[in-house]
Amino acid sequence: MEAEPPLYPVAGAAGAQGDEDQFGVPDGPEAPLDELVGAYPNYNEQEEERRYYRRKRLGVLKNVLAASAGGMLTYGVYLGLLQMQLILHYDETYREVKYGNMGLPDIDSKMLMGINVTPIVALLYTPVLIRFFGTKWMMFLAVGIYALFVSTNYWERYYTLVPSAVALGLAIVPLWASMGNYITRMAQKYYEYSHYKEQDERGPEQRPPRGSHAPYLLVFQAVFYSFFHLSFACAQLPMIYFLNHYLYDLNHTLSNVQNCGTNSQGILTGFNKTVLRTLPRSRNLIVVESVLMAVAFLAMLLVLGLCGAAYRPTEEIDLRSVGWGNIFQLPFKHVRDFRLRHLVPFFIYSGFEVLFACTGLALGYGVCSVGLERLAYVLVAYSLGASAASLLGLLGLWLPRPAPLVAGAGLHLLLTVSLFFWAPAPRVLQHIWVLYAAAVFWGVGSALNKTGLSTLLGILYEDKERQDFIFTIYHWWQAMAIFAVYLGSSLPMKAKLTVLLVTLVAAAVSYLWMEQKLRRGVVPRQPRIPRPQHKVRGYRYLEEDNSDESDTEGERGGRGDCAEEEAPTAGPGPGPKPAGLCRRPCPYEQALGGDGPEEQ
């Protein structure tokens, strides 16, 4: 079998003419220098450019898949460990034998308080952290804090569990805000790499047309949330393969339970205080926790090694250039935009519905009637339904923009009204198929909600390359809703369903009102982000573009930095003025012998 000829001939290799080519120029070691280091004679610039941008597009896809898998593993490990830990600590025999009078219920309550209360202040520091560390490194740091929480369960004490829970609560909003910003930025970059020829024709100063990257954003968000919702199924693996072997059946755990579903009060009133038939060995617990720790470490490696940077160093805006005060104020100034104000009820409902799926539906309707040993399968049904339905968001490529959100809200509305009238009997398995169906359909509505909201934010604010402020506001309101659910955990089920229903109707009406305003041409009020005042002439500040600037700000800015830095003069000078000089050249440009990037 003959070897394939190389794509380009190797410089210095002997050809068909022997040691001389057809023009009589010697070949081999005695060839001229230009012949050895010059361009290949068969070099195809267009083909090389196409291959280069194809590699760039594959790199973007790799970033999206790595971030999605990292988020899935991180949240799956966190939920799985927390669920197993709370079940073990609930059993009074386990507490007395393993820990004596250490007060595990009090430690668990303070741990849950740390996780749910600390995100209240996240609006104050999340944008600062994302701008200081960068989007990718903020993701890596937050995933590392989740891994720290897992590691503290090797030694369960007050001084290990509670501080790690507080740190975890501080990292929740920064993690998901940076994730949302990262996926949106990847969609923008994929559009740039797919339409590089159009970008060359427009020029570097002009931005792509509105709505250009929306199809890629919709696909990437559908992929991300399809992975994310699988985390609820991954979290049940320790329960299915380990803890279920130690649990009592429903006849023991539900012996004192009288009311379930819409007639229940609080969380599992009357549930038996002993749920473990036999206590798991400490060695087995260490093995399970070690597996979870290894998965958390794998998630850190995925984010660190496979997720590329969201922005080039010259695109990153340093805190010293924009200012700490401006970074701190901008999340509050963004609330002036009527689009965000109209979406706040949907942000709140997004936090309500996911907590209701994990506590109200899974516990109040599931465990209360079919036993603790089937909790994992109810959540797996919810997870698989949500993961598969996340891909339904791709229908937004052909349907109107409000379709996914309105469809998800309508499905949840029907389910909420139905749950008002359903009170399953304890210890009866005939209705278990209804429970699984409700979990699957609730997951479908959750997927349409999450995918639709994130895609909508990316489309509404597509004129901004950096959307960390927008996703910070979204996930902060979501965290506030989760905190409200934590405070109201002892309410009757009917009260919870009423709050859920009122919030859902308010969210749908407010969103449709916002769409009506946009169709009428109402211009939203966006805060003007100050231009960076660069004090250092380094490689970070050679970029003239402001990635925080929107299209309208760019039009108002006119000449931009040149107009700001131009010194006022009383009149025309006697000599000719230098053309196009907006700033002094940096030392690197002086070394090249030029007068700056805008030298004429």
From TrEMBL:
Q: Name one GO cellular component term.
A: endosome
Where does this protein have compositionally biased stretches of type Basic and acidic residues?
A: 553-562
One GO molecular-function entry: Toll-like receptor binding
Disordered: annotated span = 1-30, 525-600
Where in or outside the cell it occurs: the entry states:
Cytoplasmic vesicle, Phagosome; Endoplasmic reticulum membrane; Endosome; Lysosome
Q: Which residues cross the membrane?
A: 60-81, 111-130, 137-155, 161-183, 216-243, 285-311, 343-363, 375-398, 405-425, 469-489, 495-514
**Topology in the lipid bilayer:** Multi-pass membrane protein
Instruction: Alphabetically list the UniProt keywords.
Output: Adaptive immunity, Antiviral defense, Cytoplasmic vesicle, Endoplasmic reticulum, Endosome, Glycoprotein, Immunity, Innate immunity, Lysosome, Membrane, Phosphoprotein, Transmembrane, Transmembrane helix
- InterPro entries noted in UniProt: UNC93B1
Coiled coil: which residue ranges?
A: none
> GO annotations under biological process?
adaptive immune response; defense response to virus; innate immune response; intracellular protein transport; toll-like receptor 3 signaling pathway; toll-like receptor 7 signaling pathway; toll-like receptor 9 signaling pathway; toll-like receptor signaling pathway
The entry's function note states: Plays an important role in innate and adaptive immunity by regulating nucleotide-sensing Toll-like receptor (TLR) signaling. Required for the transport of a subset of TLRs (including TLR3, TLR7 and TLR9) from the endoplasmic reticulum to endolysosomes where they can engage pathogen nucleotides and activate signaling cascades. May play a role in autoreactive B-cells removal.
Q: Which family does it belong to?
A: Belongs to the unc-93 family.
According to UniProt, the name of this protein is Protein unc-93 homolog B1
Species of origin reads Lipotes vexillifer
Q: Please spell out the taxonomic lineage of the organism that makes this protein.
A: Eukaryota, Metazoa, Chordata, Craniata, Vertebrata
Q: Which gene encodes it?
A: UNC93B1
